[in-house]
């Protein structure tokens, strides 16, 4: 453990100790493993449904000559590929930290979710737009039996996608989250895909019925374009969320405020100069703080206070796998001097650079 007192240039060094596993830690780990298991089953159910539906839609679309049905087939193929990405994310993101990745592999989930968003955009949205514009420009001929076959396929797809969506919604509720606030990118992607699939099947069915009644392929072309627009929107939302988390999204602002209040409430702390948080996974985060201690403490007292404060933060925020404290001694800071290099020195000696690794 290394605690630095920048103003006086004193350093306190001690052997780094690993905190023994606690019941709470074991419970959190078991809960995370159970959550991953439920999510894996949800993804596998969605994958099985999408593979069967993709084949049925493709065969039905070719047989009926339906651009809307072919667009839905492309949508299901994209969803199937995305489920493979999500399964890879679930497996790879739980690898333990190593020398090359000391903060772990939690962000792998965000990376694979970003790839899933790209897959939805390219394989689903772009192909649907192409099919829609082709139908509007060239038209298409369908027989009555083709219409019926297509509508039957869409009905089966609606039921299968609905079952998968219901399971994903139930899992979100089981985890105590609303559908719009799901944190796990894998589960969030399944919810978005299945919800979009149910709407897309509805658009395709309406387009086919209107085509059958009016004889104009314009309706199916418009349905395909609507499906494409829906997929592009969902891809944008999923990609935007993954981007924010990959580049370093802060923890919940309310929680950050509670940590700041906890630090300010410590009698040994004069002020909290800076507090930074960053998500390093769906259930892990980094906390870094720069604090000024009250004057009059020696090196051993500073070390004891820092360890106690970090344990308090870890108790409040169990997901904080890494906690860094940059401790400064107000007696030696010389805050009122006009040193032009002060800002540059502060930037170089950031909390992450001089703090201690470890939860508590």
Write the layout of secondary structure elements.
Layout lengths: L1 E4 L4 E4 L9 H42 L2 H26 L15 H31 L5 H31 L10 H30 L3 H29 L6 H12 L4 E13 L2 E10 L5 H18 L3 E10 L12 H7 L2 H4 L6
Helix pairs in contact: 1-2, 1-4, 1-5, 2-3, 2-5, 2-6, 3-6, 4-5, 5-6
Describe the structure.
By secondary structure, the protein is mainly alpha-helical. The protein has 2 domains: about 30-245, Up-down Bundle (Alpha-lytic protease prodomain-like); about 250-355, Cation efflux protein, cytoplasmic domain (Alpha-Beta Plaits). About 65% of the residues lie in helices and about 10% in strands. The protein contains 10 helices and 5 strands; from the N terminus they run ββαααααααββαβαα. It has helices at about 25-65, 65-90, 110-140, 145-175, 185-215, 220-245, 255-265, 300-315, 340-350, 350-355; strands at about 1-5, 10-15, 270-280, 285-295, 320-330. Strands 3-4-5 form a 3-stranded mixed sheet. Strands 1-2 form a two-stranded antiparallel ribbon. The longest helix has about 40 residues, at about 25-65. The radius of gyration is 27 Å and the shape is elongated. The N and C termini lie close together (about 10 Å). The model is unreliable at about 1-25 and about 335-360 (pLDDT under 50).
